Amino acid sequence: MKTEIILSELQFKAVRSSGPGGQNVNKVSSKVVLSFDVPHSNGLHPEEKELLLTKLKSKISSEGLLILSCDEDRSQLKNKTIVTKRFLALVQQALVVPEKRKKTTVPRAVIEKRIKAKRNLSEIKQNRKKPRL
């Protein structure tokens, strides 16, 4: 992943924020919408593109655009930095490949301990019964 190339490929769009806020919301376009074209990116290897498309399937549109938005702050510049950081964290998290789990056998001591506990419990229950005459 080449971060500099990816950052140059990002497209930002300023939109009016929704919700309460009075005149500031009505006049100022402080919400920032980030869009990133995953299939046509030059900063990602083909394997990384496939990994992103599979892991972030719910966040990617049918055209292959990854769209994130931020309207947390009243400042457009702060919203832009927040959404950019969020985007980079999301992509880096999606590109992490988990290690494969190695199968291990159950140790003999653990098996013996379990069987011994079962025998002990069985003896306790046998001792609760009335003796047969």
UniProtKB/TrEMBL annotation:
<protein>
    <submittedName>
        <fullName>Alternative ribosome rescue aminoacyl-tRNA hydrolase ArfB</fullName>
        <ecNumber>3.1.1.29</ecNumber>
    </submittedName>
</protein>
<feature type="domain" description="Prokaryotic-type class I peptide chain release factors">
    <location>
        <begin position="16"/>
        <end position="32"/>
    </location>
</feature>
<dbReference type="Pfam" id="PF00472">
    <property type="entry name" value="RF-1"/>
</dbReference>
<dbReference type="GO" id="GO:0004045">
    <property type="term" value="F:peptidyl-tRNA hydrolase activity"/>
</dbReference>
<keyword id="KW-0378">Hydrolase</keyword>
<dbReference type="InterPro" id="IPR000352">
    <property type="entry name" value="Pep_chain_release_fac_I"/>
</dbReference>
